[in-house]
Amino acid sequence: MDTSKIDLTEVLKTHFGFDTFKGDQEAIIRNVLAGNDTFVLMPTGGGKSLCYQLPSLIMEGMAIVISPLIALMKNQVDAIRNYSEEDGIAHFLNSSLNKSAIDQVKADVLSGKTKLLYVAPESLTKEDNVEFLRSVKISFYAIDEAHCISEWGHDFRPEYRKIRPIINEICKAPIIALTATATHKVRDDIKKNLGIANAAEFCSSFNRPNLYYEVRPKTKNVNHDIVRFIKSQPGKSGIIYCLSRKTVEELAEVLKANDISAAAYHAGMDSAVRSQTQDDFIMERIDVIVATIAFGMGIDKPDVRYVIHYDIPKSLEGYYQETGRGGRDGGEGRCIAYYSNKDLHKLEKFLEGKPIAEQDIGKQLLQETTAYCESSVCRRKLLLHYFGETYEEENCGNCDNCLNPKKQVEAKELLCTLLETIIAVKENFKTDYIINIILGKETSEIIAHQHDELETFGTGAGDEEKTWNAVIRQAMISGFIEKDVETYGLLKITAAGKKYLKSPKSFKVVEDRDFEEEENDEAPMRGGGTVVVDPALFSMLKDLRKKVSKQHDLPPYVIFQDPSLEAMATTYPITIDELKNIPGVGEGKAKRYGQEFVDLIRRHVEENEIERPEDIRVRTVAKKSQMKVSIIQSIDRKVALDDIAVAKGIEFEELLDEVESIVYSGTKLDIDYFLEEVLDDDKVDDIYDYFSESETDDLDEAIEELGDDYSEEEIRLVRIKFISEAGN
Fold it and tell me: Among candidates 278, 390, 385, 321, which has minimal Cα distance to 45?
């Protein structure tokens, strides 16, 4: 059959109802029809699936589509069947089918009705399936989500490595590999593993101009921030990604408690519930899905208006693919990621215990994500650079960094120092090591290599580490240096970098954001500036707190902490019930100290004719409360705090966070039984006296003031005792 003369536009119109192809679709389809191996890199929403669906309908035999997700297969098969009069035209073969369903699939395949068979890689390796497929004419193999092949990809699956040997067993036929995200390293890995080194490559631009990118610091008020954001987007569809199933479930409950139509989705749920949730989202019976990254692959919903990352992703590829599920119709798509150093340390901890090579890959991918989050450079420019694409514009006008640009500083001398240092160490070291030399840090590795004797050693100590990180990142974007991926990120100088050193000229950088500072700033709402603290009311509340603290002979922070006052001056609670929902207040404090505060707020609202925000109560949910109630009961039974942490499956530090939250909200707890076991009386007295006389409960100040004799844990424990006894 001569496929070269086929009018593809007519076939497209007949089968799919479209008048024209998008981007490279037609060229890709012609290459497949010609029987050639094909590699397709096309961002989410670009129309990848059409590249194998359409040729499968034209060519003799049946195409096998290897795909990682069962939910994706069902969606794709349903979609193809919608375009055809014959249900048997497309099938899937996976573990979700019973024997009679499998028999039906095989009967349709053998009759020649089936043109597309979707198979999970695990099903493909089953002996009876291999035997069956040998008896069928295969037109070509399509490997969807091909990045799963590479250990450098964001969703590596070992079973994908076995695809080529199985293809050889069934029968050889052309291969089309498709992915939405892949760096050069991942692309090479895919082609090498599939044995298609000479495949024609079709790479579309990674730029999605309609997507707005923003990174916000992840403070304790993150749930509050998310609820407010969703309430400001009524009726719009959104996806929130979390790393753990526990967080998915808890956050979904918070949203539902705040009258947001939301549902949880993760791989641990019953498959029928997952399918129902997916259908509900597509059919707009719910607005928001809270999910682990298992959700969304192949979900063809064009009008997802926002994608929120509750936790930072493990790689920029994963982040790009997940954000790519927003605004696929070319309309609005807001991509907001919450970033905290604490989350970064957690992800690094997860890598411990894995093979060294895997740790190195994981750490490098995490470094790239951190660089994206902390940088003040245009986010679009950074993302595209990561995928090997140059974005020429200086300001994209559609990310937080471009809409709120930071001042540029001259860094010509810094860049020269950086380049000289990389050359001096023979391009054999990574970012952290280079920065340590420039800052003059005498690490054991630097001394062992005698790099403390280099001319540039310590010459950059006058600038902060984040400045040097910014210089390195922006030197990479400018093409003066590059990271050698093969050697896990050694810094190398490019020809342009060598040329720059010979005749340096002005080089400006913008410094990275300091997220540690921003995380500690507990203002109840950030980013976008739609909700701000009422400064006049905040000042009046501070004065009232001072007055109440004098009456009770207590430091002001024991009454209410600053973040609680800021929340009051933002949301204007005018009843005790509303006050109870302010972070850090709770029932005990609301009853004990609250009346004067709500009276003051009510007067201020009336006198200034203030329109209070309707959604002032971000309600917490029972699950969180259950944890707190259970901790209170365990402490009442005098269970050791470290045993409580083990029983709850949380770190001791996380338990202290919970206990602090309980006592700061006004509940009295007696932890003397535990302090007697772990601390000398003298230590307890010293720390207790410090907090009695201090104007602040700030932990860093306490650590500095009390000195090295007291650990952070000890200070936190006694602070809990003090707040509980003095304030509650």
Answer: 321
